[in-house]
Amino acid sequence: MKTRFLWILAVLVPVMLVMSGCSLSPNRLPSVKAGVSADYEVTLKFASVLNLPTGADVMMNGLQVGRVKELNESKDGVDVVVGLTASRPVPADSTAIIRQNTPLGDTYLGFTPPENPTNAGNLHDGSVVPMSRTTSPPTLEDTIAVLAYFVNGGTVQKVQDTMVTLNKTLPQIKDVRRLASTVATDLDDLAGNLGEIDRLLTGLDGVAKSFPASRVQIEHVFGDQGIDYYKTVGYSLVRHIATLLPSVGSVFTGGLWVVPLLTSIAEAAENAAPIWPAGDRMVAGANDFVSNTLKPFLKNPRVAITSVKAKGSDKQMLADSASILRILGVVR
């Protein structure tokens, strides 16, 4: 009888499993990661949800804040009803996106809080997140197609060629090290002279602060008085230059008479050129005359008369002149 009972049990168990399998689906299985309570429900409108299953996690900042409860088709796309926990409030102006960390990983819904929080409050029971704040992911087929185009379209080869070109263009490692060493030395010098930079900045600050104190003078320079001054100077300068230029022109024009004079001087110099080779003898003779004749006479200027000759009646006058000079001691 025990054997008969085991046979009946072996037949009934598969039949029950087959009959119950008609109402069993993966979507009805509880999420193994569902660990938060669903205190209130929120509806999010998506254009598409890819393969987001019911029971998928709802994450925010790496923490689970709820799970997906229902997926309902609408005229604009898909309405995703999620159950959120009250212990982790979600800002009302957050954005939502369906994510999948890896192509074969689990799909989940992620909330992104705003960078600049507002006074919109938090999501509550019955809140609706519009499609303008939701992002639908691309389909897996599109992702694989893009990846295939990236691999087969030569992009990888282009990246490799670009890296090779960069390696050829960039300097050698030793040059880079030398440049880095020079830059480091310059930075050390700069750090050691921060006091000079502070002094320069202090001086610039002092100059900048002096402008308000000299406001009146600056206004005079760039005001109506300064403009009149510069206009007067410019007018006077241009007027004198305009007066001077015709005069300079008249000098150049009236100076044409100098041309014949310069021509004559040039011709005289050309004619005198043959006598210059005898110039050394002339200079030597002049030096000898000055040294041996002129200088001794100037030191002791006297004239020795050795004889006087006369003709006719002049002989008696000459004899009387000689007697007078002998009396005076001039003639011996």
From TrEMBL:
PROSITE patterns reported in the protein's UniProt record: PROKAR_LIPOPROTEIN
Fetch the Pfam families from UniProt.
MlaD
Q: Per the database record, which ranges form the Mce/MlaD domain?
A: 40-114
Q: Which domain of life is it from?
A: Bacteria
Q: Which InterPro entries match?
A: Mce/MlaD, MlaD_Phospholipid_Transporter
Please report the name of this protein according to its UniProt entry: MlaD family protein
